[in-house]
Amino acid sequence: MKPIQITDSLGTQHGFETTPKRIVSLVPSQTELLYDLGLEDQIVGITKFCVHPVYFRTTKTIVGGTKQVKMETIAALQPDIIICNKEENTQEMVAQLLTICPVWVTHIQTIEDNLQTINDLGQLFNKRIEAQKWIDKINFRLDDFRKFIADKPVKKVAYFIWANPHMVAGNSTYINTLLQLNRLDNIYAKKPGRYPEVELKKIRLEGDPDYVFLSSEPFPFKDEHAFEIGRYTHHAKTVFVDGEFFSWHGTRLFKALEYFKLLHLKI
Predict the structure, then answer these.
(1) What digits encode the pLDDT tens for the residues 109-133?
(2) Does the structural domain 152-266 have CATH classification 3.90.950.10?
(3) What is the maximum span of the chain, computed from C-alpha positions, in angstroms?
(4) What distance in Å separates the CA atoms of residue 28 and residue 49, rounded to the nearest whole number?
(5) Could you tell me which residues come within 8 angstroms of residue 201 by beta carbon, excluding any fewer than 6 positions away?
(6) What 3-state class would DSSP assign to 66?
(7) Which residues face 155 on adjacent strands?
(8) CB atoms within 10 A of CB 15
(9) CATH class of the domain whose range is 4-140
């Protein structure tokens, strides 16, 4: 087999004499992607937030979270490669992990970035056919969804990810890309920062949304949060949404497009 020469999302060039066999994934959505590419047996370590497939919690070694990991545990697994993400994992963590083995870092803001990542991992792990099948399936469903959404009016939305302080999804985020796909105009897209803090009392002045989306992750929003935020809007409808479908990359987009259809029927 020829040596593998491939570049990750950050422009880091990687060279492998053979296909990496032992994988530690520190990105929940990409753990799911690796599984969907048929790499279950090669995945040796995951984070406590890697909940799909659910049984990985008992069959794989948990190495920590996405921001803090047990370096000794990862080293003991003798990985050939560690999968990270620019948003999920810190620069300091990546620098430490590089002392163990090569680290592949993804950076996904757009649907095109996401499809490229699926293609890249298919190349890297010799799963080209499986990767192309997923890309084709996603593109087919994307075409169908774009026809479904084409005649829907554009509505304004605020997508909350945290409370006290209140934080929202801003521009240059994958969440914002998927809001745009849904013909939802993010009122905080022009605010500085990717996940800016906001003042509830200014929500009308800063866009007065038609909808307030409360994500299921990373913060566990409850009815009292919905009431608190909602009373600062004019007549916005507050909707609890599944954060995995708006923020998870990889093959999750395939399921997300059906979820979005159901969401539009609800709102």
Answers:
(1) 999 999 999 999 999 999 999 999 9
(2) no
(3) 63
(4) 6
(5) 232
(6) coil
(7) 184
(8) 9
(9) alpha beta
